[in-house]
Amino acid sequence: MERLLFIAFTSFMIALSGALMPGPMLTVTIAGSSERGFWVGPLVVLGHGILELMLVALVLGGLGPYLTRPRVLGTVGLAGGIVLWWLGTAMIRSARSLRLPGTMPTGVPSRSSVLHGILASLSNPYWTLWWATIGMGYLASALKFGIPGIFFFFAGHILADLLWYSAVSYAVSRGRELIPERVYQGGILVCGLFLILFGGWFLYFGWQSF
After folding, report:
1. Is the pLDDT higher at 191 or at 89?
2. pLDDT for the residue 68
3. Would you tell me which of 88, 98, 118, 144 could form a disulfide with 196, CB atoms 3.0–4.6 Å apart?
4. Could you state, in order of their start, the residue ranges of all structural domains in the chain?
5. How would residue 162 be classed by pLDDT, with cut points 50, 70 and 90?
6. Can you give the three-state secondary structure of the chain, one letter per residue?
């Protein structure tokens, strides 16, 4: 059980690191919340989660055995470690200069927020890069614990997105700044350090797999 909780915690932290960085999902959340209120955030995450759940299902449906091969584990682990180091370093360097975007103008098309979450994820190059390296590597590691490992991985991952985008949506819908700039920048810094540390673990995991 302790290992499963560790999977959930580390998955949560890595997902939070990605969620904190400005991107398409943050943009559609702010734009929609300014017009339609708090529930836009959770609905955007729902769309995002549906897309990722489909990807996880594909892994469990046939890609799983392939991912557990030593050479694949090693390659993905090394690639994921390098990406984590690169992202963590970039986050630390840019932490002081990052700003949480302000409220978007109203009048966005009245489309499904769930669909927005799906399209925002697909349009983000970081999302593709994350799943091609870090996500696949983590799934391969979680598969060693069977279905419970996958469940705790996905639960921790989606919970980070839900908490962050719900907080942003609430702040925008209330019409005043509820997330201080220093708190946001501090979160970026902490997550950057976490990515570097976890990147080291990924590199070790990849090397050992060979």
Report:
1. 89
2. 66
3. 88
4. 2-209
5. very high
6. CHHHHHHHHHHHHHHHHHHHCCCHHHHHHHHHHHHHCCCHHHHHHHHHHHHHHHHHHHHHHHHHHHHCCHHHHHHHHHHHHHHHHHHHHHHHHHCCCCCCCCCCCCCCCCCCHHHHHHHHHHCCHHHHHHHHHHHHHHHHHHHHHHHHHHHHHHHHHHHHHHHHHHHHHHHHHHCCCCCCHHHHHHHHHHHHHHHHHHHHHHHHHHHHHC
